[in-house]
């Protein structure tokens, strides 16, 4: 299984697959301080909502050898990295509670164990989600996906891509269209690479191609991941997801969101309160051939959009498949 994150207990360090240089190189970066983990989250060495949460948890654990104050500082720093994926804040809350409960003599061990639990639970959640989601797909299916909600965006297996993996394990014939996902090309650089590496038949399309593809009847289902889901099912995910959902509705194609409970934010009644990260202009201003869009041109680069729940056919979680009307609340079997 692809491992985007690996904790080294002896060295108190976190090894990250450097997602900035894929698919050209499979390189790894070692983070030895919470600050290095925070920078790796900001510059997207590690990315994807669950993976960010797991990395941050290990980042907080790293600080334990320097005492409680250092952990509190680390938690605050890590919380200022990326605002949209709620998994990050849930993981940091868990680490904060663990810090409060741990004995001074056992701090480092307790925090490292809690981070490892967050990591292991995510893999289990993805496996369960995969089994539920696989049932939604016909024996032979062509699936369109956006961004990268794969093994490398999570603790392992993946959310949206985990469903494809599980469906294939059940013997289903799954073919995939991957949106390139402008501007950082997570679809072209990461999803296409990850799926091809796993032997899937995957075809890369420009983001603007999705509607034409659907109109040709060549997509059976759209499956995407999520960064934050409100109580009514409104879903934040990579910019461009909303357009896909509207297109899918217009063409009568099911639009599925796959996400673990750690992606739900039930303090928000709907998606209007989801904080949307705005990233650096240069991610769009610098063109592929090295030219720059003139400074006189303004650039607006939000990393995520919100898809209203009415466009979401079903939300697949580790607790099962939920269909509208969504009314997620804290109870057994829901986040
Ligand atoms: O900016 P990114 O690459 O971190 O955005 C990632 C996504 O939008 C994913 O779809 C989402 O985090 C789910 S990952 C399982």
Lay out the secondary structure:
Elements: E1 5-8, E2 13-17, E3 28-31, H1 34-42, H2 49-62, H3 68-79, H4 86-101, H5 107-134, E4 140-145, H6 160-169, E5 173-179, H7 186-197, E6 201-205, H8 210-215, E7 221-224, E8 228-230, E9 235-238, H9 241-250, E10 255-258, E11 264-265, H10 282-285, E12 304-307, E13 314-317, E14 320-322
Parallel strand pairs: 4-5, 4-7, 5-6, 7-10, 8-11, 10-13
Antiparallel strand pairs: 1-2, 2-3, 8-9, 9-12, 13-14
Helix pairs in contact: 1-2, 2-3, 2-4, 2-5, 3-4, 4-5, 5-6
What small molecules accompany the polymer chains? 5-S-methyl-1-O-phosphono-5-thio-D-ribulose
Strand order of the largest sheet: 6-5-4-7-10-13-14
Distance between the terminal alpha carbons, to the nearest Å?
27 Å
CATH topology of the largest domain: Rossmann fold
Helix content: 25-40%
Shape: globular
Largest sheet: 7 strands, mixed
Structural class by helix and strand composition:
alpha/beta
The averaged pLDDT comes out at: 96
Q: What pattern of helices and strands is seen along the backbone?
A: EEEHHHHHEHEHEHEEEHEEHEEE
Cα Rg:
19 Å
Question: Mind telling me the CATH class of the largest domain?
Answer: Alpha Beta
Short note summarizing the structure:
The protein is α/β, with parallel strands linked by helices and 335 residues long. It has helices at 34-42, 49-62, 68-79, 86-101, 107-134, 160-169, 186-197, 210-215, 241-250, 282-285, and strands spanning 5-8, 13-17, 28-31, 140-145, 173-179, 201-205, 221-224, 228-230, 235-238, 255-258, 264-265, 304-307, 314-317, 320-322.
